[in-house]
Amino acid sequence: MVTINHASDTQLLDALSAGNSSARLQAALALGIRADPGLAGAVVARCALEPDFFVRDMLTWALTRLPADVVVPRLVTELRSGRAQARSQALHTLSKIGDRTAWPAITPTLLHDPDDEVARSAWRAAVVLVPPGDSAELAVELAHQLGRGDPAVQLSLSRALVALGDVAEPALQPALANPDPAVRAHARATERLLHDPDAGFDLAVDEAKRIVALGPGAAC
User: Which SUPFAM superfamilies does the record cross-reference, listed alphabetically (predicted)?
Assistant: First the structure.
């Protein structure tokens, strides 16, 4: 087991690939406390491989402790990785750092990534990093994906749109008239959440499906 106070950098980095997840978690914690910019590359690389959610979360925390000008360029490079976890974890970490210099790297390709976890991470990162003047365009880009995925994916997309505020409502309008009932229902559920953020998503979806099935008059 790695001891935080006495382990060398080499020991900590070796422990990141230990078979025991507790040892990896302690090593990630130690690296975060140490906050050595020289170890940023190794921590970013481990994020792409780490199988345990809690260890990945600790690795993200460790990266947020480092200077943004050291970490952000490395994370942006990861966004071009062929490994889905590398892209997803880099996006997640960028959303936690909140440095808007990374915004140009949040491309439509990432927002439409075929891997749901990557796309969800991209939506969250985009909402955090988007400059105010680009929010409306981002809302339109996100609205193109209404109807995508299972309920968890749809909730993530709705939350991202709701987080953009007033610019989301006009972006929803084309989807509300989409011939696909799943798209219309998701758009209506998102519209409901936009007006009532405390409304439960499942109830909003059920109500939207009822309205879609019965026609516009059912909303009255």
Answer: ARM repeat (SSF48371)
In angstroms, rounded to a whole number, what is the distance separating the alpha carbons of residues 49 and 197? 36
Which of 123, 107, 113 is CA-nearest to residue 163?
123
| Per-residue pLDDT reduced to its tens digit, 183-201 | 999 999 999 899 887 776 6
CA gap 171, 173 in Å, rounded: 6
Determine how many CB atoms are found less than 10 A away from the CB of residue 29. 18
The owner of tokens 């968890």 is 152
**Does residue 191 fall inside a structural domain?**
yes
pTM tops 0.70, yes or no: yes
Q: pLDDT tens for residues 73-108?
A: 999 999 999 999 999 999 999 999 999 999 999 999
The angle subtended at Cα 61 by Cα 55 and Cα 66, nearest 5°, is: 130
Amino acid letter at 116?
A: D
Q: Which domain holds residue 160?
A: 136-215
Angle, helix 84-97 to helix 40-47, in steps of 10 degrees:
120
Q: Are 87 and 76 in contact (CB under 8 A)?
A: no
Query: Is 57 within the bounds of a domain?
Result: no
Q: Kindly state whether residue 23 falls inside one of the protein's structural domains.
A: no
Q: Which two tokens stand for residue 29?
A: 């914690």
Count up the domains in the chain and report the number: 1
